[in-house]
Amino acid sequence: MRMVDVILKKRDGGELSREEINFFVRGYTSGAIPDYQASALAMAIYFQNMSAREMSDLTMSMVRSGETVDLSEIRGIKVDKHSTGGVGDTTTLVLAPLVASLDIPVAKMSGRGLGHTGGTIDKLESIDGFHVEITKDKFIQLVNDDRIAIMSQTGNLTPADKKLYSLRDVTGTVESIPLIASSIMSKKIAAGADAIVLDVKTGAGAFMKTDKDAEKLAFAMVKIGNSVGRNTMAVISDMSQPLGFAVGNALEVKEAIDTLRGEGPEDLMELVLTLGSEMVVLAKKADTLEEARGKLIESIKVGRALEKFKAFIENQGGDPSIVDNPKKLPRAKYKIDLTALKSGVVSNIVADEIGISAMLLGAGRATKEDKIDPSVGLVLHKKIGDRVEKGEKFLTIHSNCRDVEEIKTRIYKNITIGSRAEKPVLIHKVIMK
Ligand code: URA
Ligand code: CA
């Protein structure tokens, strides 16, 4: 087989066979196929698309390019949740202990954040002592004993995806549905999930800026998962504005604690219950979504979810007393309130710009090498559709640097006060197979 023929076939709109896809993935991973041929194929896929069968074959080929995680020693159905990334997305911090409190195993491998979106591990590491560098044996033992553990990604999972993703980044081929879908699904499958709940974000703060694209991506991923024997479903959720109120690591841990107490922001709670109910049903701990939702709400009400969060923190070396005393979390030196310049209704909050503002304060990384400041970030007091009076504070900057003029300007530019606005719908669509 010659790589040039594979490229020609896709360029001219043909459907690649499983053998051709395997030939490419193996050859590219080993170095036998050079970057320039892989770029040409990625560009051909970008223009010609892939069939559902090609996407599944590409996904499984990338899974086989490296190690896979064997979670078979953990009892129960391992349901993983994946978000395509958003601003102030505190969901996993709440969802993981909440679902675990219903005896569902949460064995999560997580990454760190890059750009305007934050990573779950960065958020958890704002808790003094908490660490994710645990051995595979310890990880499995913790999930079996306490139903929850998070470890940083180790081992050589999906090397083909790593190489291809870096190449796509510099060849204008990131925005291709089959390439994104196979990239995400290969990582989830290699990490050992039995079932997968996808949270595909749509809007300014999301990777997919329109509902149409978000739906296409969700459909592609759901199809891939189910065709390779992993129960998969997707929720398309709003990311036109940040989720909840807090954007920033320790600030989001505090927000997660509030939510686990039943006192969190409405949108965050609703998204947690929507995704959580699907996870509970997939894990076969409830027959219907209504029953699942009831169980989740009960666990919050009686404090079981919060207790699970404490145990989780303690198991991984963190100080669990922050749950009862969040003032012990890292706190920024300065709190700077931003007040409304006129009265009206908040009509727009550009999520990605708010994410970038938090990143510039030190809450995120512009490059992989940047160090994160866990204490800094932003807290919204108003969301789209809320009334605000002239002079009333609508946002607080938490900073360790006194001069935040540039960030203030950016925020004022990206939060609009108009005469009227509806609250955005949070759940746009649910996609089952
Ligand atoms: N995230 C991924 O993991 N892969 C992509 O291709 C795009 C976003
Ligand atoms: Ca948040």
TrEMBL record:
Pfam families: Glycos_trans_3N (PF02885), Glycos_transf_3 (PF00591), PYNP_C (PF07831)
Assigned EC number: 2.4.2.2
Catalytic activity: uridine + phosphate = alpha-D-ribose 1-phosphate + uracil; thymidine + phosphate = 2-deoxy-alpha-D-ribose 1-phosphate + thymine; 2'-deoxyuridine + phosphate = 2-deoxy-alpha-D-ribose 1-phosphate + uracil
InterPro entries, per the entry: Glycosyl_Trfase_fam3, Glycosyl_Trfase_fam3_N_dom, Glycosyl_Trfase_fam3_N_dom_sf, Nuc_phospho_transferase, PYNP-like_C_sf, PYNP_C, Pyrmidine_PPas_bac/euk, Pyrmidine_PPase_CS
Gene3D superfamilies attached to this UniProt entry: Nucleoside phosphorylase/phosphoribosyltransferase catalytic domain, Pyrimidine nucleoside phosphorylase-like, C-terminal domain, Transferase, Pyrimidine Nucleoside Phosphorylase, Chain C
Annotated GO MF terms: pyrimidine-nucleoside phosphorylase activity
Keyword Transferase carried by entry: yes
SMART domains in the record: PYNP_C
Pyrimidine nucleoside phosphorylase C-terminal domain span: 345-418
Stated role: Catalyzes phosphorolysis of the pyrimidine nucleosides uridine, thymidine and 2'-deoxyuridine with the formation of the corresponding pyrimidine base and ribose-1-phosphate.
Protein name: Pyrimidine-nucleoside phosphorylase
Organism: Clostridium aromativorans
